[in-house]
């Protein structure tokens, strides 16, 4: 590192915004959920309406996007890593796989495939630990949403 180079900046002093694409995606999702929540009733604290969760999610996502931008803007932030495309595409692919399979395959296969696709973003992932993690997460999410919350999403929708 040269005397004129500070961590988190390029050699010319400009901040590297490697986290900006992720922050923009979160901000766009926050705006989408916020706009969608405005047409739904919020309910009360004892009986939450269908608009409450999207509103809270939009506030959370918006706050995360602001926090990412602020953390990235700090001059002492070490930004020597470059944007890694593989993990980004794996998470994006996992979201798309879940959206494409939740209705056609059911909750357990959709979660299983989602975890497996997301794990592909890490080059050090190994097959059997990923399969075990996907099975455990699938069972846990099924238990929470089906047994705990009583949602009507079928565990398996194959052949329906």
Unreliably modeled segments: 1-6, 8-13
Query: Which structural class is indicated by helix and strand composition?
Result: mainly alpha
Radius of gyration: 20 Å
**Total domains:** 2
What's the β-strand tally?
0
- The N- to C-terminal Cα distance equals 62 Å
Oligomeric nature of the chains: single chain
The H-and-E topology, N to C, reads as HHHHH
Helix amount: 55-70%
Work out the strand percent: under 5%
Please summarize the sheet with the most strands: none
**What is the general shape?**
flat
Tally of contiguous helical segments: 5
What value does the average pLDDT take? Answer: 82
Describe this structure in words.
The chain has 160 residues and is mainly α. It has two domains: 1-82; 85-148, no CATH class. It has helices at residues 20-37, 52-73, 85-101, 107-119, 127-148. Helix 1 (20-37) packs antiparallel against helix 2 and helix 4 runs antiparallel to helix 5. The longest helix has 22 residues, at 52-73. The relative contact order is 0.11.
Features:
160 residues; mainly alpha; 2 domains; 5 helices; 0% strand; flat; disordered N terminus
Would you summarize the structure shown here?
By secondary structure, this protein is mainly alpha-helical. 57% of the residues lie in helices and 0% in strands.
């Amino acid at each position: 590192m040269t005397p004129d180079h500070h961590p988190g900046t390029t050699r010319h002093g400009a901040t590297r915004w490697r986290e900006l694409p992720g922050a923009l995606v979160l901000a766009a999702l926050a705006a989408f959920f916020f706009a969608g929540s405005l047409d739904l009733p919020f309910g009360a604290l004892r009986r939450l309406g269908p608009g409450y969760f999207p509103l809270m999610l939009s506030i959370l996502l918006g706050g995360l996007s602001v926090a990412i931008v602020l953390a990235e803007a700090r001059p002492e932030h070490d930004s020597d890593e470059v944007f890694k495309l593989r993990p980004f595409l794996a998470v994006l692919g996992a979201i798309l796989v879940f959206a494409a399979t939740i209705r056609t395959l059911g909750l357990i296969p959709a979660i299983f495939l989602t975890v497996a696709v997301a794990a592909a973003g890490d080059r050090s992932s190994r097959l059997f630990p990923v399969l075990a993690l996907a099975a455990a997460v699938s069972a846990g999410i099924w238990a929470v949403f089906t047994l705990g919350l009583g949602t009507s999403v079928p565990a398996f929708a194959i052949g329906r």
